[in-house]
Design goal:
Blueprint: H1 10-14, H2 19-32, E1 38-39, H3 51-62, H4 75-89, E2 98-101, H5 104-115, E3 121-126, H6 131-138, E4 142-147, H7 158-164, E5 169-175, H8 187-199, E6 203-207, H9 228-233, E7 234-239, E8 252-255, H10 258-271, H11 277-288, H12 290-317, E9 331-332, H13 343-354, E10 356-357, E11 359-360, E12 370-373, H14 378-393
Parallel strand pairs: 1-10, 3-4, 3-5, 5-6, 6-7
Antiparallel strand pairs: 2-8, 7-8, 9-12, 11-12
Helix pairs in contact: 3-11, 4-11, 5-6, 5-10, 12-14
The chain binds pyridoxal-5'-phosphate (PLP).
Pyridoxal-5'-phosphate binds next to α5.
Length: 395
């Protein structure tokens, strides 16, 4: 008899649990215990899914759409996704290039699994979404973080990219609009980066989950539209969670050249099978009823924009804090470096003393910052930022 069971796998031992979900869970636990917590940690819209989407899903459920569907998605939804890339960006997509997955997160994972082998390197600009390095590790590949700091607006530059490329580099991951910084790349910025990636024959995972959440005169650009060469190497991840407040539905999309989409569908067929069948009919309504969808998104966007401006103004009034005015997603990424405290320590004390939940920049590969989500009510934002100001005064 052995006294101890064998160790868990390398994958199980190497995984870091999502720090954003951890902070959110801690804040929710405090709230459940009766504390008045101001939560800036959430990574999801505080709105409910629009009714017309729910109704379509309920109708599908009633109609018995409760069985397995084709792995890459129901035919109508794949068609609708293909069509909307045409309508939104003039990108010609065939339904066979679309994979509907159980979440935008899973779409990213499929893209990484389809392009990275053990030993390959994937370049991840920091600050980054917490899941990218972990997913790259799960593919047996090596995440290479490249810090793109405040000086470049938290955006990767061609020079930074060029310096990080080695013969082993296979994939570049870009996320515009960005979680956690809200940065939005301009078209020339994207074109310059894509040019470097193409010159080195890299694949590019373009995570565009926040594509509809851009403010002011910022505009989202889909780099797959730049050239035939770009289209042949770019895997576009997106989904329904953020634009349609459907985080709990678990529905993502991946658009890629047909052979890559086929490989992703085959991977998905062995890992998860199709995304929930009746949920896909809700997503179909979100894409087919464009007028209703536009109205729902405009309503959310107006609220997010108002909160973004307010929070940005209030943050910059706090002595020692400075914050860029992000143009997309629903996050601000203020610098707290002047306080000389690690961001983890800062967030722990902020939660304990002032009951304000924020995620430390270190979780996103950028020390000296906080991520504040403004996907919460105006009241919570006003109260929370006042408490943050109090806290900063004591440092
Ligand atoms: C939320 C998010 C996703 C996808 O979320 P799902 O809920 O899995 O659809 C993907 N990328 C980023 C950067 C996100 O913030």
């Amino acid at each position: 008899m052995h006294s101890d069971p064998p160790p868990l796998s390398l994958w199980a031992r190497n995984i870091s649990p999502s720090p954003t979900l951890a902070v959110d869970a801690k804040a929710k636990a405090l709230k459940a215990a009766g504390e008045d917590v101001c939560g800036f940690a959430a990574g999801e819209p505080d709105f409910d899914t629009p009714d017309f989407i729910k109704e379509a899903c309920i109708a599908a459920l009633r109609a018995g759409k409760t069985k397995y569907a084709p792995t890459p998605g129901i035919a109508e939804l794949r068609e609708a996704v293909a069509e909307r890339y045409g309508a939104d960006y003039g990108l010609k997509v065939a339904p066979g290039q679309v994979v509907v997955s159980p979440g935008g997160k899973f779409s990213c994972y499929l893209a990484i699994l389809a392009t990275c082998s053990p030993g390959d390197e994937a370049i991840i600009p920091a600050p980054f979404w917490v899941s990218y390095p972990e997913m790259v590790k799960l593919a047996g590949a090596v995440p290479k973080q490249v810090l793109a700091g405040e000086a470049t607006g938290f955006k990767l530059t061609p020079a930074l990219l060029e310096a990080a490329i080695t013969p082993k580099t296979r994939l570049l991951i870009l996320n515009s609009p960005s979680n956690p910084t809200g940065a939005v790349y301009t078209r020339p910025e994207l074109e310059a980066i894509v040019a470097v990636a193409l010159r080195h024959n890299l694949y590019l995972l373009s995570d565009e989950i926040y594509e509809y959440l851009v403010y002011g005169d910022a505009k989202h650009h889909c780099p797959a539209t730049f050239s035939k060469e770009a289209e042949a190497r770019i895997l576009v991840a997106s989904g329904f969670s953020k634009p349609f407040a459907m985080t709990g539905w678990r529905l993502g999309t991946l658009v890629a050249p047909a052979p890559i989409a086929k490989a992703c569908a085959e991977l998905q067929s062995q890992i998860s099978s199709n995304a929930t069948t009746f949920a896909q009919y809700g997503a179909l309504a979100a894409l087919r009823e464009r007028e209703k969808a536009r109205t729902a998104i405009a309503l959310m966007l107006a609220a997010f924009d108002r909160r973004r401006r307010f929070l940005h103004t209030e943050l910059n009034k706090i002595p020692g804090v400075s914050c860029l005015l992000a143009q997309g997603a629903f996050y601000l990424f203020p610098s707290i470096a002047k306080f000389g405290l690690g961001s983890q320590e800062f967030c722990t004390r902020l939660l304990e003393k002032e009951k304000v939940a924020a995620v430390p920049g270190s979780a996103f590969g950028a020390e000296g910052f906080l991520r504040l989500s403004y996907a919460t009510s105006d009241e919570v934002i006003a109260k929370g930022v006042a408490r943050l100001a109090n806290f900063c005064r004591t440092l």
